[in-house]
Every structure is written in C-alpha cells, then in structure tokens.
Input
Amino acid sequence: MAISTNNIGVGAINIIRMSGRESLNILSEVFSNKKINNCKSHTIHYGYIVDNNEKIDEVLVSVMFAPKTYTLEDIVEINCHGGYAVTNKILEILLLHGARLAEPGEFTKRAFLNGRINLLEAESVEDLLESQTDNQSILAMNHLTGKTTELITSLREKLVGLLSNIEVNIDYPEYVDELQITKENLTPILTEVKNELEQIIKESKNGELIKKGINVAIIGKPNVGKSSLLNALLEEDKAIVTNISGTTRDSIEGSLIHKGILLNLIDTAGIRDTSDVVEKIGVEKSKEIMKSADITILVLNNNEKITSAEEELLKQLETKNNLVFINKTDLETKLEPIKTKLPIILGSTIKKEGIEELKDQIINNFGLENLESKKLNYLSNTRQITLAKEALNNINNVIKDNEANIPIDMLTIELKSAWENLGKIIGEYYEDELIDNIFKRFCLGK
Ligand SMILES: Nc1nc2c(ncn2[C@@H]2O[C@H](COP(=O)(O)OP(=O)(O)OP(=O)(O)O)[C@@H](O)[C@H]2O)c(=O)[nH]1
Ligand SMILES: [Mg+2]
Output
C-alpha cells in the first residue's frame, strides 16, 4: 500500500493504492458500501472509509482484479480528499487491518517480478516520472512501449539462433539440412551483430545526455562576464554581477531547456592566482567543475588582450569538444584573433547578442540538433550501456578467436556471455530461454 499521488499535503485528492490478494478484503472491512464484496473488475464505487462507525472520509474506490492490472495482482485504489490528516488517518486504518506500506518502487518491482514488464521498461517508468523535457519522456515512453526492447531482442535472437545452430551441428550431426556453422560463415554473421551493437552504443551517449541533460561549465578569468552570461542564458538574474573582479566565489547553477534538451549550467569563480583563501577555494572548485562537465564554455573579454592563463586554459580545453564565447563585443576590440580548433561564438551579454547561437552550438556539439523523436530508442543509463559494451566485447573476442582458428564449439561460452549480457539489459536470463529455443526451433523433443 502507498500513496500514489504526489506527497501528502494540500491537493484536491490523494490516491492510496493497495496491491495483492488481500487488498479487497482489507478494504471491505473499512468501507461503508458493502456492494464492494461482489463487485466486478475495473469498476468504481462510492462510499465512506469508516473507523468504529465513525465516517473518516467520503471516497471513490476503484477495484481492478488480476491479471489486467499494473502489477498483475488485485489492485484497489482509494481516491480520498487531499488533506494531510485525512490521508494519514486512512493509511493508519488500513495498516491496522493488515495492509503493509510499500517500499519505494515496489509496485513496479511487482510488475517486473510478475512478468508484466521487463527490466528496461521498469527502469523507464522512473525515467518517465522524472522527465522534464519532451525528449526525455519520449525516450522513456519508447522504452516503456518496448521499442528499445525490440532492438535488443532482435540482436539476442540472432545470437540464440547461432548458438542453437552450433549445438545442433555438434549434438545431431545427422541433421544435414541444418546450416553448418563454419569459420567462414561465422565471422560475417557476428560482424553484423557487432555493427548494430556499436551503433546502439554510439547513439546511447545521446540517450544519456537526453536523460540527465548536458552539464555546461562556464569558465574564464574574473570579470569577463561569466555570471552575466549565465543570467542571459537563463533569462533571469540568478547570479550577482558587479564590475569587481572575484564577485563569484562559489559555483551557481541553473537549468534551461533548449530545443528539447535540458542544459544544466554552472557559473564558476573566475580563474586567477589569488591569495584570498575563499577565492582560492572557489578557483580550485572551478577547475574541478571544468573537468567533470560535459562541455565547458571559455569566456573571453573582447575588450582585453588574452593573458597567458587564458591561453593555458584554451590549450587544456582543446582536448574535448568545448566552446569559446568572446563577450563584450559592444566594446572596442582589443583581443587579437585567437588560434583554436574550438568553435567560437561572438556576443555581448548586455546587448543579448550571440546567446541563441551559443545555445545552438552547445547542442550541435553533441549532434543533438534536429532530433527526430521517433528515433529516440537509445539505452539511457549506465547499467544498460555497460552491459551493451560487455556484450560487444564478447562478440569481438569471438570474432578474434574464430579468426585464430579456435574450434567453433569452444566459442560458445563467450557467445552465451554476449547473449546473457544483452539479456540482462532487459532483465532476462538465458538458460531456460536457450533450451526452449533449441527445442522450439528444431523439434528435437522426442
Ligand atoms: N560592456 C559590457 N559589459 C559587460 C558585458 N557582460 C558583462 N559585462 C560587465 O562586466 C562586469 C563583470 O561581469 P560578471 O558577469 O560579474 O563577470 P564574471 O566573469 O562573473 O566575474 P567574476 O564573478 O568576478 O569572476 C560587470 O560590470 C558587467 O556588467 C558585455 O557584454 N558588455
Ligand atoms: Mg561571476
């Protein structure tokens, strides 16, 4: 049992959800409308929650019997009034009548354990609830409706086909009409799987970025206009801006959504040698933030010559796909043309110039422009991506060993690992499935 709406507090209604065989029995002990005992599935009932003949709340109760429910178990949902006291009182009464509070995510866990959804889908329920942008929810929905599962399943089918084929070749050599897997025809089949897997992993980097947003660090020496840039990007005065160098001592964060992508911005303390203890800590922190960000914007001042410290930063940043923003173009140009491979955007935070170009450039740097939502089938968390990479590693090993003339039956262990790793992404285990598949495919069960 749990409250399925937002936290208890003031709201029009709260929904208390119970799942499991005893749900209806527990409800009937505390519900005034006794018709509930003989009700049909997927019906709604009006009545009162009562405690020792005292009416606690006027409620609507939905009853859904297994198996057509979220958890595949009987589910009872009580729509009660949204106040803290009343919701708590109902929870208390249900506890007294034998209900137990659900652990976080327990309903989805039950849906998974009862086989209604797979692991990939279960993980995406959480993603869907946390979605802040359209792209995030489309990605989660595509997982939930199984598009990503289809992708992984089709790869697993190729592998299971191969494995069953190899086993049949070995155990039943008399089945001559079966394809004989040889050194020559194994590598091309595996290369196909390898290519598809590489594509999924490559695109999944986007999935991760869509899901968590792009972490953007704004770096530069003091007074170049980093905080002004943060404010201009956010379109609000979040960070303090003054003409005193060293204004920002600690990092300041803010988020915005640009073309469906969440950008998490971090304004940092200006980087310079300083003897001020507080500022020094800020400077060290800026360097740390720069290292952990997905992308760093180095802000330079158009009105000043470049310093050796800035040249040093520029060199460090060139190793990744970072950006340079030359600010204060409304003032006289004193900055000489800079040599860098990084994209440069010119602008002025005061005149609001270059801001849109900068946002576009950030998402372009990750190839996230013109996202076609229907294509958002990527894996989107580290667990899934790590498993896909392990599977790819297995496939590469099999190809290498095959080319080194290792007998085919010796390759099956690693092939099974690839299949198992892909299975773990969607929460399936291989043993039973492999056996089922062999017998289903070849009708050997005599
Ligand atoms: N003319 C002009 N002045 C600007 C522009 N952007 C910022 N400034 C001014 O530059 C000064 C410093 O701006 P901040 O945004 O505080 O600079 P900062 O890089 O965050 O500075 P620290 O926090 O000290 O590292 C302020 O007086 C701003 O008004 C611009 O585009 N043009
Ligand atoms: Mg600042």
Notes: Confidence is low (pLDDT under 50) at residues 438-446. DSSP finds 14 helices and eleven strands in the chain. Residues 13 and 82 are 4 Å apart (CA to CA). The first helix runs from residue 23 to 30.
